[in-house]
Amino acid sequence: MKLENLKEKLSIATDPHDIVEKIKEIISIKKQFELTKNDRIESRVIQIEKTINRLSQIEGVDSEKIESAKEQLALS
After folding, report:
1. Please, is 66 exposed, middle or buried when counting C-beta atoms within 10 Å of its C-beta (0-12, 13-18, 19+)?
2. What's the pTM value of the predicted model, to 2 decimals?
3. Where are the domains of the chain?
4. How does DSSP classify residue 59?
5. Mind listing the pLDDT tens digit of every residue in the chain (76 residues)?
6. CA-to-CA distance for 37 and 34, rounded, in angstroms?
7. Long-range CB contacts (< 8 A, 24+ apart) of 15-20?
8. Whole-number Å distance between alpha carbons of 16 and 28
9. Environment class of residue 22 by beta-carbon count within 10 Å: exposed (0-12), middle (13-18) or buried (19+)?
């Protein structure tokens, strides 16, 4: 919601200083969003790595598939 509000305020701003400030705020919010998104992705990768490690300890699990999964995860 905050990003939408800032975009709306930017669209009606006429003062150059105000326009610059709104743009800076929008950029800051977008950077925060990217950091949050990256943190979620990193957390998910860690969960997947743990699952692969647990599976590799189970007897009868195809070790080639486990290695393939590890390689695919490393490529991501």
Report:
1. middle
2. 0.63
3. 2-75
4. T
5. 688 998 898 899 999 999 999 999 999 999 999 999 999 999 999 999 999 999 999 999 898 999 999 898 887 6
6. 5
7. none
8. 18
9. buried
